[in-house]
Amino acid sequence: MAQPKRVLVACGTAIATSTVVAKAIEEGLAARGISVITRQCKAAEVPALAKDFDLVVTTTPVPTDLGIPVIQTLAFLTGIGKDQVLDQIAEILRRSG
């Protein structure tokens, strides 16, 4: 069985918003057959934590020169484009080996 992929989920305070996003990612990727571990953090913590993850998903601007893909989206909060973003996340994680 493949190792779970690691997704860092960032928002402004690492409380409510990142919780909603992390749960949606976990459920959406499970439905796509991808095992994932999420960790929530504040946007300011992303540069220090990113090296241990396969992908960053954020609702607020963060640096993009982290050496891993970064997706900035509000789709998990608005519902608009959520499935497309989940497909994008799945594709990135599948390519990450």
Descriptive notes:
The chain has a four-stranded parallel beta sheet with strand order 2-1-3-4, covered by helices on one side. It is globular and about 30 Å long. The chain has helices at residues 16-31, 46-49, 75-78, 82-95, and strands at 5-11, 36-42, 55-58, 70-72. The model has no long low-confidence stretch (mean pLDDT 95). It has four helices and four strands; from the N terminus they run βαβαββαα. It has 97 residues and is an alpha/beta fold.
In short:
This protein has helices spanning 16-31, 46-49, 75-78, 82-95; strands spanning 5-11, 36-42, 55-58, 70-72. It is α/β, with parallel strands linked by helices and 97 residues long.
Mean pLDDT: 95
Total count of strands = 4
Question: What is the oligomeric state here?
Answer: single chain
**N- to C-terminal separation?**
13 Å
Which strand-content bin applies to the residues? 15-25%
Blueprint of the fold:
Blueprint: E1 5-11, H1 16-31, E2 36-42, H2 46-49, E3 55-58, E4 70-72, H3 75-78, H4 82-95
Parallel strand pairs: 1-2, 1-3, 3-4
Label this structure with key terms.
single chain, 97 residues, alpha/beta, four-stranded parallel β-sheet, 4 helices, 39% helix
